[in-house]
Amino acid sequence: MTLEQLHALFLAYPTICTDTRKITESCLFFALKGPNFNGNKFAKEALTKGAAYVIIDEEDHRVSEQCILVNDVLQTLQKLSTFHRNYSNAKVISITGSNGKTTTKELINMVLSKKYRTIATKGNLNNHIGVPLTLLSITNTTEIAIVEMGANHQKEIAFLSSIAQPDFGYITNFGKAHLEGFGGVEGVIKGKSELYDYLIANKKHVFLNADDPIQFQKLGSYTKRIGFSQSDHQFYNIKFIDANPFVALEVESIPIETQLIGKYNFTNCSAAILMGKYFNVPMEAIKVAIESYQPKNNRSQIINKKGFEIILDAYNANPTSMKAALENFAIMEAKNKTLILGDMFELGRDALKEHQSIADMTKNLSFNDVFFVGENFFAAKTSYEKFKSFHDLKEHLNQNRLKKGALLIKGSRGMALERVLDIL
C-alpha cells in the first residue's frame, strides 16, 4: 500500500489508536513497538474491539485482510502525518524550549481560537510519536495547528521539525533542562535552536523574545522575525507590571491581569499576545483569552486547602525553572513560607552541583521551613530537613504537621510530589 493509499484510508477512518485499551470503533490501530512492548501482538485484539484496520510490521501477526503490512510502523505513522500536514491547508506553529512549552502552547491556543479553528498538542504529547498524532488530528476545518516539540538530546528537534514542517516557530527559552542528554547548557542551546535552523533554512517566520540575548543574537538580521520586547521599540512592546503572585502586564495601554503566578510566565503570555496580534485577533479578545486561562495538571496551580495556600508546581523541574520558582516565592507576600522540593532529573554529572546550588539558594532566601526529598538533595550539604525518599518525607509529615501558610511544592515528574496534598 502506498502512502497516498494509506492517507485515503485515514481520511475514511480518521481516528488513530496506538493502545488497544483505548480502541474506538472504526479506528486505525498502529502497532507500535517499544523496549517493553510489541503492538503487533495485539493486532487481532484491536480488530476484535472494533478497529477498521491495523498497521503492522511483522508478517506473523497478519491475521486478516484488515492487517496492513509495512516495513516500520513508527516510520509509517510519521510519514503519514507529514503527508496529512501537507494535504491540509492549516498553518503550523511549532513551540519548543527548556521551560514553559506547554503553558505557552495552551495560551497561544486560547488566544488564536478566539478567531480561528485551531488544534493543539494534547497534554505533553510532544515527542516522535506525539507530534505525528497531533498532526493527524488536523481536520478539514482546522486553520491553525499549534504543535509542541520536546527533546532531551540533539537532533531531535531537527527531526520533529522535518515531520511537522512548521510555517512559524517559537522557542520559549534555553535553560538547564535535560543536561545529561544534551551534553550541557551549550548543547541545550544548540539542540533547541534546531527549530530556528529549520525555519531560517526554509524562509519561514520566527517569533522571538527580543529581550532574550541568545534568541536576539541567533536570529541576527533575519528578516522574517517577529518579536516582543519590554524596551526595544523596533519590536512589539509589552510591559511587565507585577507578579505578586499573579502576573500583570500592559499592552497598548490595556492592563491584563492573569491567573498565572511567577514573573517567568510573563514571557509565556507575551508570546501568545504577540501571535494574537500577528494573526489579527482583536485586542479585547486577546485580553479575555489571557485573563481566563487557568493552569492545570500540577503546573503552578494555586490550591487553597486546610489553611494552606499551595503553589503546586510538581509537573516538572530543572535548575532554571526551580530558581525562577524560588525567586517568585521569595517575593510573595505571606506570613509563613514553606518549601517542599524534590529532585531534578536528567542532569547527569551536574546533578550534585545543581542540587547543591538550589540548597544554597534556599538558605539565602530565608524561608521559614524547607524540606528536600530525593537522593540528589539528600546528598547536598544543608541544615534543612532532607529525606532520601518520598516515604521518609511522608513519615515525617505524618508526625510533624506543617505550619499553615504559603507552601511551594516543586520537583521533577518522577518525584510525584502532588502526593503531598494527601498528607496535609
UniProtKB/TrEMBL annotation:
Keyword Lipoprotein appears in the UniProt entry: no
Pathway, per record: Cell wall biogenesis; peptidoglycan biosynthesis
Record-annotated Mur ligase N-terminal catalytic domain positions: 16-64
EC number: 6.3.2.10
InterPro entries: Mur-like_cat_sf, Mur_ligase_C, Mur_ligase_C_dom_sf, Mur_ligase_cen, Mur_ligase_N, MurCDEF_CellWall_CoF430Synth, MurE/MurF_N, UDP-N-AcMur_synth
GO CC terms in record: cytoplasm
Subcellular location: Cytoplasm
Annotated binding of ATP, by residue: 97-103
Gene Ontology MF terms in the entry: ATP binding; UDP-N-acetylmuramoyl-tripeptide-D-alanyl-D-alanine ligase activity; UDP-N-acetylmuramoylalanyl-D-glutamyl-2,6-diaminopimelate-D-alanyl-D-alanine ligase activity
A Pfam match: Mur_ligase
Key words, A-Z: ATP-binding, Cell cycle, Cell division, Cell shape, Cell wall biogenesis/degradation, Cytoplasm, Ligase, Nucleotide-binding, Peptidoglycan synthesis
Swiss-Prot/TrEMBL GO biological process terms: cell division; cell wall organization; peptidoglycan biosynthetic process; regulation of cell shape
Reactions listed under catalytic activity: D-alanyl-D-alanine + UDP-N-acetyl-alpha-D-muramoyl-L-alanyl-gamma-D-glutamyl-meso-2,6-diaminopimelate + ATP = UDP-N-acetyl-alpha-D-muramoyl-L-alanyl-gamma-D-glutamyl-meso-2,6-diaminopimeloyl-D-alanyl-D-alanine + ADP + phosphate + H(+)
Top-level EC class: ligase
Xref: SUPFAM superfamilies: MurD-like peptide ligases, catalytic domain, MurD-like peptide ligases, peptide-binding domain, MurE/MurF N-terminal domain
UniProt keyword Zinc-finger, yes or no: no
Domain (Mur ligase C-terminal) ranges: 299-387
Mur ligase central domain mapped to chain residues: 95-275
Function text: Involved in cell wall formation. Catalyzes the final step in the synthesis of UDP-N-acetylmuramoyl-pentapeptide, the precursor of murein.
Family statement: Belongs to the MurCDEF family. MurF subfamily.
HAMAP family per the UniProt record, alphabetical: MurF
Descriptive protein name: UDP-N-acetylmuramoyl-tripeptide--D-alanyl-D-alanine ligase
